[in-house]
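Structure request: CGNR zinc finger domain-containing protein, Actinomadura gamaensis.
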Amino acid sequence: MRARTTGRTLHDPKGGSFRFDAGALCLDFAHTGGEGRYAVFETLHEPTDLAEWLAQPPLTAVMTVPVTARELTAAKTLRQAIWDAAQARAARRPLPAEAVADLNRAATAAPLIPELAFDGTTAGWSRPVRATQALSTLAREMIELLSGPLGDRIRQCAGDNCPLVFVDTSRPGARRWCAMERCGNRHKLRALRARRATDP
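Returned structure:
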């Protein structure tokens, strides 16, 4: 049914892509697009786009009921709430009341229900599988994350002008970058250039 790993490949509108693991599925979902200046990163254009995202591991929730336009709108509202709450927690600010209300509202729907297969070794989701259930599951995960022991480990990437947020699940709690291959390497390269510029 579900793999334990999280993370997705993010694509830059200007070209290029990289693997980004936000450390929690709900935070991965928050990076599927956005409003305002983040609209250029939008990946959920149609209801089928949402269905395809939810069907991928680790959630692997294959919709048995077609996703509606209304559910797509609800998904974007939830996504914004997760984003706003994560950004606030990373900045050590109070959570926006609207984000909290939207998270709680999405969580009131019935979540996905796990179902053990007859072989006793695999599992899937009990049918019917609806988008509202998947959104409720994501909202509940975010609520648990914010209120649990990892809530204080939600961070924004330390890279210049990088807004990506993640939960630091590393044992030492020392993660700084969205991805070492992206912002981490850029930081190292800038530091190297700065050292060389000051070397006699």
